[in-house]
Each structure stands twice: as structure tokens, then as C-alpha cells.
Amino acid sequence: MPIAANDPGCAPPRCAACAARDTSVCASFADRELTALHGIGRRRMLKAGQVLIWAGDPAAVCANLVSGVLKVVREDPDGRAQIVGLLFPGDFVGELFVEQARETVVALVDADLCLYSRRALEPVLAAQPGAEGLLLRRALGTLAEARRWMLMLGRRHAPEKVAAFLLDMHRRLGVGDRVDLPMGRGAVGEVLGLTIETVSRQMTALKAAGLIALPGGRQVRLLDRAALARIAG
Q1: Ranges for the Cyclic nucleotide-binding domain (predicted)?
Q2: How many CB atoms neighbour CB 222 within 10 A?
């Protein structure tokens, strides 16, 4: 017999149906414990281009990304904005135990989040065995991702950038030789500092060389990852 949705031992319906639950910080919470986390959160939908967090503002909120992709933007000393990373479903958004946000977080495509007050979230996590350790591991992973991202963007030529991007998306989201890109070519160009036309030309060239296939939509099949890695450098 199904457990009633209001049973204290049952995960809240949104949590039970969440595709990102097992890859987010929520993975350290049992169903009963998720009720406390769910109780301090609220759903937040962002349209592409909307800002969730502004650098320099009080670090008031954190979130779990349920669907969509966010970009993390940092300003150089000369005031130029630079994308320093992407966040995917299951990633934790925002910074705990700081008073001021250091980076701007913007929706690259439409996104669905569970949003929490940082002040309310900190004691919930502190009381949850394993949650803080999981967040520490994720923070270290985020630093590694940021270093990898900067290396990718530091490549000077468009073929290198596109090949490196496809390999990175496959590492994060791939199944077999296939990856379903979470964004269109315009957003890919924004991320890589290229025009949509340049991205399209590079994808077409990789297809003509037999290195990728483009079955349709946003799906890409990586037919020769070794050759793509050589192009990416």
C-alpha cells in the first residue's frame, strides 16, 4: 500500500520525484530527514539570462540545481566578465559560511532550483551526518572543474575550444558515445567566447572529418574521442 504523502517517514513529493536527488547533497539525507530540508526551501524557476546571485551582494541564499544549466561568472580586475564554470543538475549553488558572494550565478538555460536561506540551511546541514563532508568533497571537485574550465577557455583556436567542450560535456553527461548537450549552439558560443556561426562551422567540420555524428536536435555522438583529445590539446 502506498505511503501517504504526509507520512513523516516519507520523502516530500517533490523530493521523491527529483531526478537530481541521488547526485546532490540530498543524497546524504534519509527520506525522513529530507522533510526538514524541504521545510526550509522553496522552488525557484529561472529563465535563461536571469541572475540568481550577484557577486558582491550578501551571501544570503544557496540552492540545489534540479534541472537546467547555470554559468558562474567572475569579474577580472579590469572589469571584464569571464565565465569560470558551469553548474549542472545535482550541483550545489552558492557558498556557505561566507558573508559576501564572490561570483555571479546566471541561468544559461531555463533552470529549476530548490532555494534555501543560507542562515537556515547551515544548522540543518550541521545536524546531518555526512552532509558537510559531502559538501567539502563537492567544493574540492568544483575547484578542479574550475581549473579544467580555465584551461579549456585558455585555448586560442576555435577547433580546440569546441573539441575540448564536447569532451567535457561527454565526461559530465555522456552515455556510451552519446551526449545530449544541455544548451543550444548560441549558448555554447557564449560559453566559449565564439559566435554561433563559428560553433556551427566547427561542429560541421568535425562531422565531415568523421570524428562526431549529429543525429539531430542537441545530440552529439563522439565517434573518435582520441582524435578529439588531440585537437583539444
Answers
A1: 25-96
A2: 21
Residue 125, all three cell numbers: 546541514
Cell numbers standing for residue 90: 545535482
Could you report the per-residue pLDDT of 182-202, keeping only the tens digit for each? Answer: 888 988 888 888 899 999 999
Do the beta carbons of residue 135 and residue 115 sit within 8 Å? no
Q: For residue 44, what is its C-alpha cell?
A: 525557484
What 3-state DSSP class applies to 106?
strand
Torsion from C-alpha of 142, 140, 168, 175, nearest 10 degrees: -100
In CATH, 13-134 is 1.20.140.10: no
From first CA to last CA, the distance across the chain in angstroms is 56
As assigned by CATH, the class of the 158-232 domain is: mainly alpha
By three-state DSSP, how is residue 51 classified? strand
pLDDT tens digit string along 124-137? 877 777 776 666 66
Give me the residue spans of the domains in the chain.
Answer: 13-134, 158-232
Q: Are 117 and 103 in contact, with CB atoms under 8 Å apart?
A: no
The predicted model scores a pTM of 0.78
